[in-house]
Specification:
The structure is a single chain. This protein is α+β, with helices and mostly antiparallel strands and about 650 residues long. The protein folds into four domains: about 230 residues, 3-Layer(aba) Sandwich (Rossmann fold); about 80 residues, Immunoglobulins (Immunoglobulin-like, Sandwich); about 80 residues, no CATH class; about 160 residues, Porin (Beta Barrel). Helix content is about 25%, strand content about 30%. The strands form seven sheets. Strands 21-22-23-24-25-26-27-28 form an eight-stranded antiparallel β-barrel. The protein has a six-stranded mixed β-sheet with strand order 2-1-3-6-7-11, sandwiched between helices. Strand 22 and strand 23 form a beta hairpin. The longest helix has 22 residues. It is elongated and about 105 Å long.
């Protein structure tokens, strides 16, 4: 595998591949590739740095996974990059390398595998963190037809909480094209579980059963192991085995695939050496390599014969029957005809001797080939990755950022290093809130200060939302069908204001229905209104702006506070119930994906009075973001493969 080569050999090998692949991509495809191209990045890291206790078998797990890809998955060895104990920058450069490799082919599968330390925020590498948001961004920058991410680490299920990719309509089902397109993530744990290693298996539970499944234990009879079969087998075995120890580990699966035939990962039929376990010898079977005692496969036999694809060699096969008795047999596999395991003998259980993990060249990829055209493209993807991380300010606290802007407008922006934006939010809020308050002191006209104060409060809210959004944020586009909750104030030409709750539900894009300025408002002169309103909106959907038209209807109940004789005290003023109907235009500006400011203007019939009303409001969008990512956030289009990177 690539990562196991000395660094100088690695640079030379990749240099040759790059020259052939970049300078003559058509010839390389014609000569070397008769079907979909498969390439993979495999990482094993025992040491997470800091105070984390080193793992024993993460690097060995990576070695086993890389081996099964090249033996049964159709992955050429020069397209499988194996890294042992990389730092964050080395890993990001390797991802950029595979992004460029994906650009060279129209039909390809990319697999990312990681075994090592992680927490709820990201992968832990040499004391640094590769945030899940950044990892998913880098993986999606690899414009492959299908992408598969596999993480064997603690709390790795956190990555599946991030928004899944939108997949397009339609590896072995077709020789010329992939049978499925899209993205799949398989993780060893849920978001709050620990991944476990096993001394007896000399590896992680998850990877052990993953590799065992890929070698045929997960196959349901057609000789191909697809992602669905693999997940079902791995989940069942990991839950059962870890449950016996009292700390159940539950793998997680997040699939976004299109296509009728699924995504096959290994072809058991492609192996030169096949072990056959007959269904007449039912029980739980473990297969150990006799040279070093390594357990390579584990499978339940009973309903059908099981075929396991294994390297040629001598094996010890153990079978625990349904009644608990233990049997052993020996088998020698060689290229050619499948070997049926026979000659079972009942034995007492004897623990196998575990050996230490094999030594690896842990230098990994410390440099990539210095071929100008190829290196420029690698640097392009690295720059995009770095800009993404810098833009999100990953590693800081959204709670702290939002809290600072709540105390002082612009404080969170200063915390995020956005100095000019911090000054703008502070001055804008101070001018509108402070100025509105000063000009309205001792006056009975709400138009002198109320509108300015409302604008200032909207800016203040924008400062809070913007500060939190730009820290470790995972949403890169706004929801189009979420529920909006906020407030809105409207001012009429008779010095009256109405403020109330705004709640809008958007069941489909362009159409919203909900409450409009529902609440209690006091007016100059001692008047008040209790209002209930509704609004139907038809709007255009932009990423930042949402302009639209609306009609509104409601009821208002209260006392008039204007145009009444001075000798009439407030308690003697009549109570009035009025119907209100109106219509107008609005524009909503999304400061962040979830926070917006809204301006509207309407003609309103309030009882017997017709008047113009101008309003301002603010709110947040709540609920799950089910909106597909816009095209410009999904990476380069497949039609650009092989072309120059965007500037």
């Amino acid at each position: 595998m690539v990562g196991q080569l000395p660094a100088r050999w690695l640079r030379a090998l990749l240099g040759v591949c790059v020259v052939l692949g970049v300078a003559l991509p058509g010839r390389a495809l014609a000569q070397d590739d008769t079907g979909p191209v498969r390439h993979a990045l495999v990482i094993g890291a025992n040491d997470g740095g800091g105070t984390l206790q080193p793992l024993r078998y993460a690097e060995r797990d990576a070695e086993q996974f890389a081996r099964v890809l090249t033996e049964l998955g159709g992955f050429r060895e020069d397209r499988v990059t194996v890294l042992y104990q990389p730092d964050v920058e080395t890993l990001r450069e390797a991802l950029a390398y595979h992004a460029v490799l994906a650009d060279m082919y129209d039909d390809d599968l990319f697999v990312l595998y990681y075994s090592g330390h992680a927490d709820a925020q990201g992968l832990r590498l040499r004391g640094d963190t590769l945030w899940y948001e950044a990892l998913k961004f880098d993986v999606r920058s690899i414009d492959a037809t299908a992408r598969l991410g596999i993480l064997d680490a603690c709390r790795s299920g956190s990555i599946t909480r991030l928004k899944g990719a939108k997949v397009a309509p339609s590896l072995f089902a077709g020789e010329q094209r992939l049978a499925a397109t899209g993205e799949v993530w398989m993780t060893a744990t849920s978001a709050d579980e620990m991944a476990q290693e096993s001394e007896s298996l000399r590896g992680g539970f998850f990877t052990h059963y993953l590799v065992s499944g890929l070698r045929g234990a997960a196959d349901t009879g057609d000789g191909l192991v697809d992602v669905n079969e693999l997940y079902r087998y791995t989940y069942d075995r990991v839950v059962a085995r870890t449950g016996e120890a009292g700390a159940t580990q539950r793998p997680h699966f997040d699939v976004n695939l299109a296509g009728d035939q699924g995504l096959a990962l290994t072809d058991v039929r492609a192996s030169d050496a096949i072990m056959v376990l007959e269904r007449t010898q039912a029980g739980h079977v473990s297969v150990l390599r006799m040279s070093d005692g390594t357990q390579l496969a584990e499978v339940d036999v009973g309903l059908r014969d099981v075929r396991l694809a294994l390297p040629a060699g001598r094996y010890l096969v153990r079978r625990r029957a349904v009644d608990g008795s233990l049997f052993e047999a020996r088998a020698t596999l060689s290229p050619g005809d499948p070997a049926v395991v026979r000659g079972w003998q009942q034995v007492d259980l004897v623990a196998s001797t575990a050996k230490g993990a094999s030594e690896h060249d842990k230098s990994g990829i410390d440099a990539f080939p210095k071929v100008d055209a190829f290196q420029a493209r690698v640097q392009h993807y690295r720059d995009r990755s770095g800009a993404f991380v810098e833009d999100l300010n990953l590693g800081e606290s959204p709670t702290v950022a939002g809290g600072l802007s709540l105390l002082i407008p612009g404080g969170g922006q200063l915390y995020n290093g956005q100095r000019s934006k911090a000054v703008g939010y502070f001055l804008g809020t101070a001018v509108f809130v402070g100025g509105g308050t000063v000009f309205s002191l001792g006056k009975d006209d709400v138009r002198t200060g109320g509108a300015a104060t409302a604008i200032g409060l909207a800016l203040w809210g924008a400062s809070i939302a913007d500060a939190a959004q730009h820290v470790h944020g995972s949403e890169r586009h706004r929801p189009r069908t979420a529920t909006a909750i906020g407030w809105s104030t409207g001012w009429s030409d008779d010095i009256r204001a109405h403020t109330g709750l705004m709640v809008e539900v958007t069941p489909v894009e362009h159409l919203s229905l909900g409450l409009d300025r529902t609440g209690y408002t006091r007016h100059p002169g001692g008047g008040w209104d209790l209002a209930v309103g509704s609004r139907l909106v038809f709007a255009l959907e932009g990423e930042r702006f949402r302009p639209g038209v609306f009609v509104s209807y409601g009821l208002r109940f209260g006392r008039e506070g204007l145009d009444l004789p001075d000798n009439v005290v407030p308690s003697q003023r009549p109570l009035v119930l009025r119907g209100v109907i109106g219509g107008g235009m609005l524009v909503r500006y999304h400061v962040t994906t979830r926070y917006f400011v809204e301006l509207d203007a309407r003609i309103e019939r309030d009882g017997e009075k017709t008047q113009g009303v101008a309003g301002i409001g603010m709110g947040v969008l709540v609920g799950r973001n089910r909106t597909p990512e816009p095209e410009f956030l999904r990476g380069e289009r497949r039609g650009k493969k092989g072309g120059d990177p965007d500037p």
